[in-house]
Amino acid sequence: MQTQLPLFNTFDFKFKEELPVGPSYIFVSNHQSMFDIPPLIYHLRHYHAKFIAKKELAKGIPSISLNLRIGENCAIDRKDARQSIAALIKFAKNVYEKKRSVVIFAEGSRSRTGVPKPFKTKGLLTLFKYIPDAVVVPVTVNNSWKVDRYGKFPYGIGNKISVLVHEPIPIAGRDGEEVIAQAESVVHGAVTSTAIDS
């Protein structure tokens, strides 16, 4: 599905296969821009997807900040490891109890050049522990870094941004680190446009 954005930027959102509503999914994505978030909120709404984000995003960003504050999402303080883990455990237990899904930007912070970053494992392993019946779904975002590579002004013009939702990866009975490595390989393997080759 293609969506028109301001300044002739477009979003193309595709699922490689249909995901039935019902299971808890952990959507594991790379992160290139704040423009990654709205299409994920919209297109994953049927799965009751909740976001894990740094606490700074819970204020000052129209729509996104409000959603983070009131939508049972998880705001973490990246400078306080104890708070982060406690908040993540509480969040994961709620997701498990209510059969929600999760969106996590596993690289930890956005890439301003599109170049993929290694996945951070601690948060994902915590989710696996407390949502043991979840299914991991890798997600690859391409080209959104080009929209705000210079900050809020000037925004990039005429970029074709894509979001690709890959085939699911069950985690039950598997080693968590192995699942993360597989998801990272899938996500990064589909990144097609970076500052290096553009």
From TrEMBL:
Name the Pfam families on file. Answer: Acyltransferase
User: Would you kindly state one Gene Ontology biological process term found in this protein's UniProt entry?
Assistant: phosphatidic acid biosynthetic process
Q: What CDD domains does UniProt report for this protein, alphabetically?
A: LPLAT_AGPAT-like
Q: In which pathway does it act?
A: Lipid metabolism
Q: Phospholipid/glycerol acyltransferase domain: from which residue to which, for each copy? A: 25-144
What molecular function does GO assign, one term? 1-acylglycerol-3-phosphate O-acyltransferase activity
Q: Which SMART domains match?
A: PlsC (SM00563)
Key word Cell cycle present in the record? Answer: no
Q: Give the EC number(s) under which this enzyme is classified.
A: 2.3.1.51
The enzyme's main class, written as a single word, is transferase
**Key words, A-Z:** Acyltransferase, Lipid biosynthesis, Lipid metabolism, Transferase
Q: What is this protein called?
A: 1-acyl-sn-glycerol-3-phosphate acyltransferase
- Tell me which species this is from: Nonlabens ulvanivorans (Persicivirga ulvanivorans)
